[in-house]
Amino acid sequence: MSSPYPFTTLTDQDFYAVLEDTQGASIVFFTQPGCSSCRAWAMLLQDLQKAQPGVHVFRVDAQESSALAQEYAIFHLPALFVFENGQYHAPLQCEARLPVLQAEFSKLLATPAVEAP
Fold first, then answer.
1. pLDDT recorded at residue 5
2. Is the pLDDT reported for residue 1 higher than 70?
3. Distance (Å, rounded) from C-alpha 100 to C-alpha 88?
């Protein structure tokens, strides 16, 4: 099934390899078909990419990649996580408004990388 989102889809098989090969800041966006909040966040993440062209957004279908969803303890969708140069930083949780998202994203990128869950 193809994704309704314009983001590269990651799976259980390629998740870490793709992130390790990606230079710069990334957001991993866990979603699933039928999630209305996910659709709203997808539009917001597209706005972020327009405002900050170097930001990568990757999508993970939580149903299809259930091992990743379990590894990252996904209990509600959407769930977002920040990576930079393949290194995990933190979950991204904030109000769904572009200025708030930009501020929180920058704040998380300024923190040291930590071990992924």
1. 73
2. no
3. 21
Alpha-carbon dihedral sign for residues 44, 48, 51, 56 = negative
Domain that holds residue 43: 8-109
| Beta sheet of 56-61, edge-to-edge order | 8-10, 56-61, 25-31, 79-84, 87-92
Strand-pair partners of 81: 28, 91
Report field, pTM of the whole predicted structure over 0.85: yes
CATH number of the CATH domain containing 101: 3.40.30.10
Q: Please write the tens of the pLDDT for every residue from 13-61.
A: 999 999 999 999 999 999 998 999 999 999 999 999 999 999 999 999 9
In a domain, 78, yes or no: yes
Q: How many distinct structural domains can be found in the chain?
A: 1
| Nearest by Cα to 91 from 68, 45, 21, 83 | 83
